[in-house]
Amino acid sequence: MRPRTWVLLLAAVFAVLQLANVAGRDTPDSKNYLSYALSLSGADKREAAAATIDHFCAGRAAIAHREQNVDVVRFHAPDPAPRVLRECRDQEWRQVEARLAAGQTGGHTVPFMPERFMRIFEVRPGYPVLLVPFVSLFGVTWGVWAAGVAVTCAGGVLAFLILRTLSVSVPLALTGQALFFVLPCGATAMRPMTEGLLLVLTLAALWGCALGLEEGRTREGVAVVAAALCALFTVKHSHALFLGLCLAGAGAVLAVRRRWRGLPPVAGVTALAGAGCAGALGTVLLARLLHYPSVSESVQDLLTDHFARPDRERPWQEFFQLQGNFWTEWLRRQLWEPLFLACLAAGVPGARRRPVFGAFLVAAACTGILNQAGHPDITIWGDRLITLAWLLPVLGIPLSLGPLVRPVVVPAQGAPVGLPH
Question: 23 falls in which pLDDT band (50, 70, 90)?
Fold first, then answer.
């Protein structure tokens, strides 16, 4: 089969496997994105609230049903799904009705939380815009699922394209696509959250880096990186800032290292670093121009449990103290189950085999660390914030396996095939 057939086959297999979990992937933040999308499609506040609450609570009911089925004590008890569904709806509607009655009716999102918290989601239209056509065509449940499949499959295809651009063999490029699906990238990208789009757009930026490092394709690569950074601004502007800074830093390190060795600069590195720097600077300026929530507001949100408590008087002191506590506990858990650290280590040799592209790959993976550092909350769903760091093994492992895979020479049609000695 042709390579593109294998790519489509892998994506199709992944999509079929996801039928095992059509409902129940939502997090509390998923309600905000879905209600935003429904508002963009023309629903008013109450219509958007009704559809969102029904979808969210149906997922909670499905989870309760599955958990009881395997509960060794209560598996024969009555199905809890109807009760969970009813209680969830009552609780969500009670909160929404109170806030609507209090006049919290602005913006696109349904007021599931205080206005200051919802403002954070109002400035992230990228993912809701993506959801609109899927929800409009397939309804809420299947539309959210189909959007997750589309985003995740796009990430796998981009992993394949990056590796092929780097002249990696087709089997190893397919390995990178498969790794994207089976490592936590796939499960995280399937959640109705921004992380899937963050992964896809970060991979798009890395593809631009791979293109920009080829002779004669610098402009094409820089254009892809710039487009990815612009799209990231609409999805989560803090990540656009992180990726721009990391790409600029990687380019600067490469340039300084080459200069110390008395070597000419690598073609495209300066342009890619300039694109990253422009993206970071543009993100800061545009966020201020549009009056987006500041970093201090994000810290207050973290320390006050989404503004449920009074603002902290010394937020930065508490934030840095929490950082130390968080990373100590995080490292303890990683050493207990070191799969993540082992996969990162397995991706490093591949990055070293392609040191120029590898620098940009490591930089992109570091955005996951920065994203997690911005939210040092050990209870956040499934380590989703650090998921971008998994891009290092997704691309690094196939790159490191390159020397171990011997090319298969297929004799021409009709040519005699000699017997092995």
Answer: confident
**Helix, strand and coil percent figures for the chain, each rounded to 5:** 75, 0, 25
Residue closest to 279 by CA, chosen among 287, 268, 267: 287
Task: Tokens 């934030």: give the residue.
Answer: 319
Question: Sign of the C-alpha dihedral, residues 221, 223, 228, 229?
Answer: positive
The predicted-structure confidence for 336-364, as pLDDT tens digits, reads as follows: 999 999 999 999 999 999 999 999 999 99
Ramachandran angles phi, psi of 76, nearest 5°: -95, 0
pLDDT attached to residue 410: 43
Residues contacting residue 322 through CB under 8 Å, at least 6 positions apart: 302, 303, 376
Mean pLDDT in the chain? Answer: 91
Look up the pTM and report it.
0.93
- DSSP per-residue string spanning 151-208: HHHHHHHHHHHHHHHTT--HHHHHHHHHHHHHSHHHHHHHSSSSHHHHHHHHHHHHHH
Residue 139 reports pLDDT greater than 50: yes
Number of H-type helices and E-type strands within the chain: 17, 0
Determine the Cα angle at 227 with ends 175 and 384, to 5°.
Answer: 50
Which of 362, 358, 342 is CA-nearest to residue 350?
358
Give every CB contact of residue 187 below 8 A, 6+ residues apart in sequence.
382
Is residue 78 classed as helix, strand or coil in its secondary structure? coil
